[in-house]
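User: Fold this one for me? It's DUF1176 domain-containing protein.
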Amino acid sequence: MRKTLIPLAAACLAGPAQAAEPPDIGFNHKDWELSCDNTRTCRAAGYHVEDKEDAAVSVLLTRKAGPGEPVTAQVQLGSYTEDVGANAAKAGVTTMKIDARALGTVRIDPRTMTATLSPQQTEALIEALTKTGTPRWSNRGGSWTLSGAGATAVLLKMDEFQGRVGTPGALVRKGTKPEDSVLPALPPTVIVAAPVQKGKAGLPRDAVKPLLAELRKGFEDGECEGLATHGKAELEVEKLAPGKLLVSTQCWTGAYNAGFAYWVINTQPPYAPELVTDQASGYANGTITAAQKGRGLGDCGSREQWTWDGSRFVQTLAETSGMCRLVAPGGPWNLPTLVTVVRKAK
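Assistant: Here's what I get for DUF1176 domain-containing protein.
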């Protein structure tokens, strides 16, 4: 299924010339994945070995762009169960080890099942991941082993994206290049959310047929269910702004997801429809949202948002929740490739 966006000139002005398009990246290898966003912040997530049916665990390494920026680390123990008692047993003081080497303790938050590692623990964890060490956490609720398979490749990609290869701060290929050669952080784009009109709107009966013909131009025959040429096409029309309406229809359905298409049109002919997306889940108060499960178990997914700025819908968020590894309902982390600052119009 296609996903077409209205051109977003405003969203491309996030920083220097090299940032004319958001420099997002996604990469995964074996039990690790990388997500870097348009500010050049990178997040690397690692997991347990799935094939061995090890206890579910995930680690998130986060590093902002720029010289001298540290890596922060969080660990999350698996909580994909309806047994509240079992999850509670995993919380509290938890011992961390690299092989047989003790690295102190962390305190697992019973609400999020996560803990933040100390700088010393983070350094030891990265060293283990880029060599041959095996990180483990244990408490009265069980033991959790993190896989290092794929970690070196993912962390090297992180270094490459942030321009750290060959510098003292590189995670994989350290060198003597000066730290000031590292790429700087980029500011997120600021989007001013314009006020919108609320309520349903109607179209003259004789306008529906020519409008449908315009909407169908962006799709192959049968590609969007709500625009079917045979049968009754179903369009929802809402007020949006002076001279503008928001039109939508359900385009596709799956086993556990559905996608709606949204267009901005003029209130009077020519309607000149502009497609925002055909992956949406809904619309409210000037924001179109797409939230899709990665699979029926609901342990992973993706989310996107588009915000009305007075002339068009600008994409203001794109993120996933990490690999489908049964770590947590809804997924363990927020791994964005696009972040923005959305402010209300004064």
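One thing worth pointing out: The first strand starts at residue 25 and ends at 29.
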